[in-house]
Amino acid sequence: MKNGSADEHLLADEEESNGAHYKCFLSKRGSKALTPFSPYIQAVNEAKNYQWTPTNPEGYFLMATAESVLSFDLIHDKIRSCREVPATVGLYGDFRGGNRLRKAIAKMMERTFMGVEVSTANVCISSGVTAVLDLFFFATCDAGDGCLIPAPYFPAFDNDMAIRNGVEPIPVQPADTHTYIPTAVEMEEAALAAEKKGINPRVLLITNPGNPLGTLYPESTLKELLVWAVNRGLHVLCDEIYANSKFGPSANEFISMEKVASIAVNENLLSEKTVAQRVHTAYGMSKDFGMSGFRVGCIHTRNKGMQKFWQNMGMFAAVSNDTQHALSIMLEDEEFVDYYVAENNRRLKKSYEIFTSLLRAENVVYMPACAAMFCWLDLRSLLPEPTFEAEDRLWKELKDESRLILTPGRACHYAEPGFFRACYASMPPEHLTVATQRLTAFVERKRRKRKAEYPISV
Ligand SMILES: Cc1ncc(COP(=O)(O)O)c(C=O)c1O
Predict the structure, then answer these.
(1) Any keyword Repeat (predicted)?
(2) What is the pLDDT of residues 45-85, one digit of tens each?
(3) What residues flank ligand 1, with Cβ below 6 Å?
(4) Domain tally for the chain?
(5) Is the pLDDT of residue 392 over 70?
(6) Is residue 426 part of a domain?
(7) Distance CA 327, CA 320 (A)
(8) Does residue 358 share a domain with residue 307?
């Protein structure tokens, strides 16, 4: 092999205390995929195996993973009662997902959040929204094409679009740093800037409710962005994976992109045919139902080509028939679904209130949320200088001194240093109280230290 070819890639063996390296003989792209999408992921992975409990007080509080443990007791009881194994589950099925689960998910989405009729034919199932995004970008983009995303955004989107498909994420920073709501003008400017660099924007990716902000986009914004994007010939993918997690005072302001699209068609802003080809929604069971380990997600698309593509390519990320069967039974129980969604939102609200009331008591600045499972913390005042290096150091100090792991704003592609995402649903409320006290004590210590160092400016 020639010098620099992929099979020369060296990997440090973490098992070996002498730091041994070995060649792993992977392709260039395989070697590139060895690195996690963001450096903080390494710490998350390590902390997963060493979490805080009352009997392990040295452990970490992991608030950097978008996972909710709050209502799994309800799902666990229910899913066990749905476990039966008919002989048909042992055979290959439809790689868009079996008809029964597609129908159950379509009905659930229609009833609980989409606000439009959802036909089974328009739902394709894969093993999580991660797989849905990977397939979607494969279907809509060529390597080097771009995807516009309002920042700050969910860090793993970079991986989802880039790692296999070579699609370039184009973060769009909103000028309104109070609401973080982007405008079509900002999108157009970002698209033009990307084109100047030779990147062809093909997709607008919106997340609503938002990750990392835990807020909702107003209908007017969604309509403005949708009309702009469709008229520019872009696909619009709305990730609504948190659509059933809404608990704040403005929770009823949620509106799905499909509903917005139907309004835009009624108002003659867009044609029905173009909307059917260009507008797509991703949904999954990982967040609202706390079932990230089951690996189930779906795309709602009326684009016939996309559906045909899924029939073929869905095989690479299919959900086991066994899981599909149990989940179908669970979702067909509408009474359970309604009870679960209401109870889960009650629990999310409780945890959000525990978290934010402790923050307020110590004057820690955060952006009020009403949905999803996150809170966006503004810790800029703790940075000695407004740089990402200072943000990295603060993140590390929080991890090492207080054993608390947050998601840094840099990983969410936010342009200004000093912001962090906290997931308050990743632990039971009793643990959350201890974790939040750790956080506020850390902030207090930092403030005192800064005051001692810079008595006038602080
Ligand atoms: C906005 C968003 N989309 C997609 C995903 C991935 O979900 P899944 O577990 O279905 O792959 C996440 C997970 O954090 C997310 O926050």
Answers:
(1) no
(2) 888 889 999 999 999 999 999 999 999 999 999 999 999 88
(3) 66, 128-130, 154, 207, 211, 239, 241, 284, 286, 292, 297
(4) 3
(5) yes
(6) yes
(7) 11
(8) no
